[in-house]
Amino acid sequence: MPDQVLDTKAAHDAVGRALPDGVSLRRMTADDIADAQALSHGFQWPFRIEDWRFAFSHAEGIVAMRDGELVGTALRWLWGPRHATVGHVMVTPRMQGQRLGQHLMHALMATLGGRTVLLHATAEGRGVYERMGFEITGEVRQHQGTASQSQVVALADGKRLRPLNRNDADTLIALDTRAGGMPRDAMIRRLLSHSDTVVLASDGDTAGFATVRRFGRGHAIGPVVAPDLESAKALIAYWCSRYAGKFLRIDVDAASGLPEWLEAQGLPRVASATTMVRGGTLERGPRQGGWALVTQALG
Question: What is the pTM of this model?
Answer without folding.
Answer: 0.92
